[in-house]
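Design a sequence for this backbone.
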């Protein structure tokens, strides 16, 4: 894995810590690993129970349905991926508000090189389940939260039309993820160059 030590293990399932009971952490760690790599429909309840090593009654006591578990997984993914990896690491790397925005694509560049790169879970679940499904709706909500983080960074940078900026910036983020999935490991650099032009456009 080529990500720096500060983020290198941030997405590994054994790093999932929810503050809940130990069985819940085991279930969520298993769900994180399986759902992020294989999607929702390909993973069955029996496999989740077997892999997490909990009794069926314990599983259903905490997660009465598979959808309930997926919703909990998406919440964990938002914290682990969006907040702890992307936003926090970009803030750490950037020395200025604009630098923090551009650093998002440096973080992406490290992520794209990882052996466990699995693309964007929220996009994956949205495409798999559709926008009308509750899981698709939840994914749309988490994608909107990402734009909210970008808009906040844009406001810190004093940019204009920050909502429009965040939507355009998010297109660059999503596009670079898809391109990296295709095998373009320079996608983050290409997106970062376009991101610089977008910042210039929104300065006035």
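Sequence:
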């Amino acid at each position: 894995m080529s990500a720096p030590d500060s983020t290198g293990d941030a997405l590994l399932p054994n790093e999932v810590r929810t503050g809940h009971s130990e069985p819940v952490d085991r279930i969520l760690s298993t769900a994180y690993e399986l759902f992020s790599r294989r999607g929702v429909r390909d993973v069955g309840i029996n496999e989740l129970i077997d892999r997490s090593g909990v009794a069926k009654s314990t599983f259903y006591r905490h997660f009465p349905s598979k959808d309930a578990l997926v919703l909990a997984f998406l919440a964990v993914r938002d914290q682990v991926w969006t907040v702890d990896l992307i936003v926090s690491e970009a803030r750490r790397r950037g020395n200025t508000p604009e630098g923090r925005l551009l650093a998002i694509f440096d973080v992406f560049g490290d992520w794209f090189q990882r052996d466990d790169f699995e693309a964007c879970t929220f996009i994956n679940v949205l495409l798999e389940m559709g926008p009308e499904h509750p899981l698709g709706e939840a994914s749309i909500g988490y994608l909107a939260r990402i734009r909210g983080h970008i808009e906040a960074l844009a406001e810190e940078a004093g940019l204009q039309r920050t909502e429009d900026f965040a939507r355009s910036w998010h297109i660059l983020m999503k596009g670079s993820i898809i391109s990296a999935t295709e095998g373009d490991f320079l996608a983050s650099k290409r997106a970062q160059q376009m991101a610089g032009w977008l910042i210039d456009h929104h300065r006035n």
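The CA atoms of residues 69 and 92 lie 32 Å apart.
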